[in-house]
Automatic annotation (TrEMBL):
Family (UniProt): Belongs to the peptidase M14 family.
Names of the cofactor(s): Zn(2+)
Name of the protein described by the UniProt record: CBPC6 carboxypeptidase
Molecular-function GO terms, alphabetical: metallocarboxypeptidase activity; zinc ion binding
Listed InterPro entries: Cytosolic_carboxypeptidase, Peptidase_M14
Length: 249
């Protein structure tokens, strides 16, 4: 079978971006954001083509399919909040987490693969806008580097708020994907929770709330995908001038 990285430049190290969504079944906006990311990445947009040439995207768009099927708000069929069981998922009780975690560990142990980003997409019932949670590290430089992606996303997406983005390590979040993988992976990996409001966003400089639509959630997803080009341009993986980049707004 063809290698999963068949479209990469020959001999290129595999740089992997791993994205998961819908671990909480009631957080439907996360599915639309994830759909926007997927639709953009498989499109003929010039940025998408460059991303496919340089990066490998692994996407698990629904981590809690039984909970979604049942119409649960937060739990799986067996009543587990899966986002508290990353540390030791059971293949029987938490099969989706177990499978994703095994794949991530397998990639982490492969010297030819560099797992650079893990983003878990959620929706938030009280906050406005899109924003991120990141991890806290003792190493100041690593902490600063971690802020780069959300800052770039803030420039691309009018509904994304860097001021609402926060970095924490409180105990209640210990079993989440972001926290667990942030502790497992090394300092070249960045782990985030991407949150988006159930309700609306406020554009900078104004006070009026704009209600989210399915299309607006998908647009946030497209802007997340686009931001990877800005990030890797900054880090000189993607060289040289492209054709002028049309905005996806």
């Amino acid at each position: 079978p063809p290698s999963p990285a068949a479209n990469l430049r020959p001999g290129a190290e595999q740089r992997v971006v791993f994205i998961t969504a819908r671990v909480h079944p009631g957080e439907t906006p996360s599915s639309f954001v994830c759909q926007g990311i997927i639709d953009f990445l498989v499109s003929q947009h010039p940025i998408a083509k460059v991303l496919r040439d340089h990066l490998v995207f692994k996407i698990a768009p629904m981590l809690n399919p039984d909970g979604v099927y049942l119409g649960n708000y937060r739990c799986s069929l067996m009543g587990f909040d899966l986002n508290r069981h990353w540390a030791n998922p059971s293949p029987w009780a938490h099969p989706t987490l177990h499978g994703v975690k095994q794949l991530i560990i397998q990639m982490y142990n492969d010297p030819k693969i560099n797992l650079e980003f893990y983003i878990d997409i959620h929706a938030h019932s009280t906050m406005m806008n899109g924003f991120m949670y990141g991890n806290i590290f003792e190493d100041e430089e690593r902490f600063q580097r971690q802020a780069v992606f959300p800052k770039l996303l803030c420039q691309n997406a009018e509904d994304f708020s860097y001021s609402s983005t926060s970095f924490n390590r409180d105990a209640v979040k210990a079993g989440t994907g972001r926290r667990f993988l942030g502790g497992l992976l090394n300092d070249t990996s960045y782990c985030y929770t991407l949150e988006v409001s159930f309700y609306s966003y406020i554009v900078g400089g104004t006070t009026s709330a704009v209600p989210y639509t399915e299309e607006a959630y998908m647009k946030l997803g497209r802007n997340v995908a686009r931001t990877f080009l800005d990030y890797y341009r900054l880090n000189t993986l993607v060289e040289g001038p492209l054709a002028p980049i049309p905005k996806t707004r």
